[in-house]
Amino acid sequence: MNRECRGDLLLRVRRAAASESDRLALEAHLSMCSSCRMTDSIAREFDAVGHAEVDDAARLARMAAYARRKIGNRHARFRLWTRVRLPFGRSGRMALAAVLFAGAGLAGTRTIWKLRSQPASDESSSTRVVVPSRVPTGQGRVGARSAPPASAIDESGLDGAGTTLGQSRLGATSAPAHPRPATEPSSRPRGPLLPRSKLLGVDQLFVDANDARRAGDAPRAIRLYRRLQREFPGSPQARLASVSLGGLLLDSGFVAAALAQYDRCLASPGQCRLGAEALYGRARALEVAGRDAEQARTWQRLLDEYPRSPYAAHARRQLAKLR
Amino acid sequence: MGMRPVVHAVRDGRQPERQRSDELLLLARSAASGDADGITTLVMAVGGSMLRTVRKVLGSSHPDVDDVTQDAIVAMLGNLGSFREECSVQHFANRVALFTALAARRRMRVRNRYYGGSTATESYIDTRAPGPFDAATSVRWRQLVLEVLERVPEPIVDALALHFVLGYTVEEIAAASGVPQNTVWSRLRLGKKALRRAIANDLRLGELSGRRT
After folding, report:
1. pLDDT (0 to 100) of residue A321
2. Which three-class secondary structure state does DSSP give residue B128?
């Protein structure tokens, strides 16, 4: 790109601020300058997708409300922190800080020490469980971590049926189902610690997410459902999660994301056991989005595919209203 | 884009080096101080442009457009404290949206590579294109530029993305990045060189362009 280039003309045209003579000058320039021709082609492609949509104002209003709440909370916390007045002088504050640091250091050291010393104490009765093969094969270092600490598994690794969590459905192909967990000789060298999230199986994650949803903790439930979908994308729980997640996203005002979740469930017919619920949620989301034609089609599909579902009466009412 | 506690953007008595007629500046200061109405008005004023910027990077029908824009808006409001007022508020907001969207795209690509998710950015084509070949070519052009942006060094990404995606002039890029204009010229030159090389080596784009013409 050289400075003699009429790049300014290109930008004026791109910003719709060019006169007719500018356009003619640009056309003449483009026939000679390959650099500007390339810029022009690329700019057109990007501008073509960066258009405004009809419901942008409603989206922005929702986003503004969320941002106001979030930033407002942060300010409130900041103000609270600056208003805290300690009842002693500078040296007292220094001493308090030193005590806090020392305490934190001791607690950290104790935790690390405890984690490191645990296998030695559990060596005699250690029960090693092969972690479900969720870790992607492309990750060399992480993939090598196949043996989690026994203590961590003892806490969360077993379900009622005696199989390892996450192995019951997902990892069933990689390990046979035993009445008791597969054991390994305790003399085997212990691998590095796995992050706790990897130890939580798909079942536990699903249960936690459902609990959070029932407790009304929508952000945590959304986080857990998303993690479930990310870490166990092919599992039946991930398909079921998309319906619950869709509902939560819809209630939080993220209509497009909710629609994507419902579509994800509906994209696998026969595999998603919550088809009626997914169609119901999809229609609700389309209603919020104001897409009436699609909404009517979805209600009709619900009636056609699940005529005896509890949502059928509601679907008929909605269809009548739309007509 | 780190989240910090918002502090006042107005540095006591210190004026920016270049006075700009930016009608959003007072609004930005008000929003930076945590004023709820200021935040709402600012988001309504600059949010549309941020939303369009995110669409340019992810594609207009990508399901995460809203979420990423939301993140960008929160990041923009959270970073108003560090806004040096050397460029306009609108440019600042667009820049935050652009880099938030690029980071989100990178995350999605990594996630898809390992977990095989269904939200590949490339699959969201522009449904308003006149025909399937135009749509495919358009996707490939944008994809190519975004791939080059992932390969080149960060300062060049800054200049190239602001120039191609947002259509900033060299002066505007220099003001937004806080570097001399000559530096921006050099970075653009290097970036365009990398882009030209990528275009020349891209068989798929060549094939699509050939079929379109």
Report:
1. 84
2. coil
